[in-house]
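Progress against Task 2.4 (sequence-to-structure conversion) is shown through the following example record, which the project officer requested during the mid-term review.
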Amino acid sequence: MRNIIIVLNTAGRFTGFSGYKFKPDANDPTRNGLGLEVKVRGMQWQQFLAADVIFWLYEVTNTSTTDYSKVTFGMLCGTYVGVTGTDDSPGEYDDDWSFFDVRDDITYTGDFDNSCKRNPKWQGPVGLVGYAFLESPGNPYDGIDNDGDNSNSVYPALAFSAPKFVEEDFDTLIYNIGDHVVSIDEDYNRQLVEITQDTQVVQTRGASVEIIAGVTKLVEGNVVDEFYNINPNAYDGIDNDLDGLIDENYTIHYRQIRMDRVENNSGEYENVILFDELNPVCYKDYINGIGLDDPMIDERRNDGIDNDGDWDPEYDDVGADGKPGTNDLGEGDGIPTPGEPNFDGTDVDESDQIGLSSFNYFTPAGDYPMADDDELWEWLIPGYFDVPSTIQNGEPIAGEDGDFIYGSGYFPLRPGETQRFSLALAYGRDLDDLYKNRQTVQKIYDSDYRFPSPPDKPSLTAVPGDGNVTLYWDRDAEKSIDPVTKEMDFEGYKVYKATDPDFNEVFRLPM
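Structure tokens generated for the chain above:
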């Protein structure tokens, strides 16, 4: 598979045809481009639980002075499951298929006949390959619990403290004198504003919204026509209906729309909307003050707060280097320190993850608009899911040579800020095996790559006797804590005997 990273923003577009060059840094007039620094790392382990996965870690830092309010992460994948072609044997590039799953934030590709018939040297099925978000970009400013995890908080009084979206939350709002609306400033601070005049202008994120009491209709992200097209207000980065929430999107936050093309009676193709119900997402109700104190709404990995409350001083108070027994900064001080497990940068749950928000599988392969910023941006709009006619109800009816682009957005990227997210390039014998591997590596990632490890080695004492040796050891192994399960899950001892120093003729002693 081939892929590229796409980081786009409407404010950052430029065109070379007009001679205009976007200047992202007010302190450096010679600097062009977007002013973004992207770091990528790939990691793989021989540990059997992660044998079929490559971890890809991304850090995108805004090193400019431009405040990007709408950014999306996208990846282009060239599907190619099977074998590459040679002069003697053509490749298998034209019988693939691709699809996605928003619940597990995964995209995947398979071979339609699950074989490499064109290469007689290959026997057996070829399997599947997938890209899954282990951690997607997050949006800690919109007032929406994008990943719906406030129920995972260890603070029982705050779990489900905010109401969940219902369909009426996306309807038109009309404000009257005496009502309150929410104003959001450039730093995403919110304050209540009372409507006291027949005509009143409210500022929010640089936009001026005029309200005529009892008349003006404000709407954010509901559908606008019978084809379930979404109001552009749902992804413009502004709180258009002044309820304190930015870009509540009927598609993303209440229902997922999946588009399929089917053949009608006239032989032409038309788009058909397929609904897939998701659990409604909790959100902050700023006007009524509900959910404002919930640390799992708009959580982030750089706020110095253990948002989900899972930092445990008994196991996690190991200091900034993340290793116990080094007596480094923060070790044993009873409070979370950056670098320690389950806190900020090492805790994936402290990111308000957006998840998979767009997918476009297209044919023929290579038919993507890399030279057209506007069209590429449209392909990554949150809520845009599209597949060709060879995919029916999520299942392939034929194979073809296609590629796909998927994305996660939108999220703000302010000057000096860094977005961290991770992907797993996972493989599986079939779809069930792919999902199993995806779930396994998610647990590994959530545990900060701490695999189940052997117990501590005991101190062994050997006492020679008359024709025998008596072994004594302490109980350190039995008392050791598994870093993943955080339990004393020691199972037992095995003692081996050999006369060769390399244990080449080892045999196990009975216990």
